[in-house]
Amino acid sequence: MKKLRVEIATVVGCEFIDAARPDDVNLPEGMEINHLCIDRKWHIVVTYLINTYRDVYTLKNTLDEIMKSLRLVENLANL
Predict the structure, then answer these.
(1) Which domains does the chain have, with CATH numbers?
(2) I need a surface site. Which of 31, 41, 54, 63 has the fewest CB within 10 A?
(3) Long-range pairs for 75-78 at CB < 8 Å and ≥24 separation?
(4) Model confidence, pTM
(5) Cβ neighbours of residue 1 under 8 Å, at least 6 residues apart?
(6) CA distance 21 to 35
(7) CA–CA separation, 53 and 64 (whole Å)
């Protein structure tokens, strides 16, 4: 079992930090998503316990969804 941690540092300001939180429901067991405000920028930290190769795909899909949400927020905020 391995614990992976991925941090996404965005150019989006912290005022948008709640934009993706509603999507953080029904996470797979062992996955945690934290939204942080660091230097007035939104950071997203995903940690996940990897037990099988399928878990890697689950993590990848989660990160893809997060990136899609971030692109939408960036476009709406005209950043």
Answers:
(1) 2-77 (3.30.310)
(2) 54
(3) 77/12, 77/13, 77/16
(4) 0.89
(5) 49, 50, 51
(6) 8
(7) 17
